[in-house]
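job 3f2a | input accepted
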Amino acid sequence: MLLENIHIFIFLVYMQFLCIIMLYILYMFSSLDFQKNGGNDYILDKMIRIAVISDVHGNRLALEAVLEDIRHRRVDQIVNLGDVLYGPLDPLGTAALLIDQKIITIMGNCDEILQEEHSDEDTFKFVKPLLTGEIMEWISGFLPTWSYENLLFCHGTPGSNHTYLLEEITPHNKRLKSPASLQEELSAYQEHIVICGHSHMERTVILPDGKIIVNAGSVGLPAYDDPFPFPHQMESGTPHAKYALLSHSEGGWNIEHIKVSYDWFTTAALARSNGREDYAVAIESGKM
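job 3f2a | predicted structure (288 res):
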């Protein structure tokens, strides 16, 4: 009898312990605050890991590989810094991967171009006729910038998606801006870390005042030629799909630049089949 009572007591204690655990789990889930992002998507109020993608340029295979890598890293939020579909590759397949996901997306200069009715650019003539009304409505909802805690996300600079933040283009060369000029340029912004894209060149720069600039690199186009403001080339040097990962710790935000392998030769063949040898060379080599 005594042994039976002991078993009953142990069972009751065990069940009480399970109830406490279940109540704690329910409390944790109920305490997650959700907020709406500027008419875009719902996001967790407290984020620990943020993946930053940029400059996909219609490269569906590269995007698939990056999204799969991100999935394994269990991130809380993906932020897309823009220039999503503008490329002679697979804009519809790229849009299908992104349009229904809860991803915060910033307006890039090439996203702006796609909102125009006409353009003489070959890439525009390839992409624009393919876009549905649903995709155009999605693009129109991209944000100019987005901030979270001490992070500021933009495409080019916080004030312009047509301008490089870290690089300076002159009639004779391209070069990194001086730390002093960057510090002055960002003096009006209170955020401690500015995350950008546009130049497709992944790097992290720390300024004298402690502010940090992160260029997330490009998911889909690792090199390109640009005639504006003066003719120049941007070359990342490898064909990998690139993105950045921000992880919060007690010391602040940790920054990782991640390179992901994918079948870039198939994507280069697609560019060639669409008459774009320039894209093909850039995609399979990271150089021009």
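job 3f2a | The longest strand covers residues 241-249.
job 3f2a | closed
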